[in-house]
Amino acid sequence: MTIHPDQVAKVAKLAKLRLDDAKLERFAGQMDDILAYMETLGALDTTGVEPLYSPVGHETPMRADVATKTCARDQILANAPATDGQFFIVPKIV
After folding, report:
1. Which residue among 5, 17, 48, 94 has the highest number of C-beta atoms inside a 10 angstrom radius?
2. Nearest alpha-carbon partner for 30 in 8, 15, 12
3. Alpha-carbon span 20 to 28, nearest angstrom
4. pLDDT for 7-42, tens place per residue?
């Protein structure tokens, strides 16, 4: 499968990216390389190979699902540039 710059332009348009012709050509080439590598991987015989979900064993830390307050309001508001004592004050945008 070959990726043409027109296809890259379509994807870029969907992603709302503006790419010049040089970048469209470059990305088309890179996508071709990726697909060629995927075809190489797809051609490998993986019969009998166990799926590898993670190279490292992870244990999920568990805790009780209980709501607790970890910070006091004063501590949180202390870092705000402007407050009214209870809430953050932010500049009006619209």
Report:
1. 5
2. 8
3. 12
4. 999 999 999 999 999 999 999 999 999 999 999 999
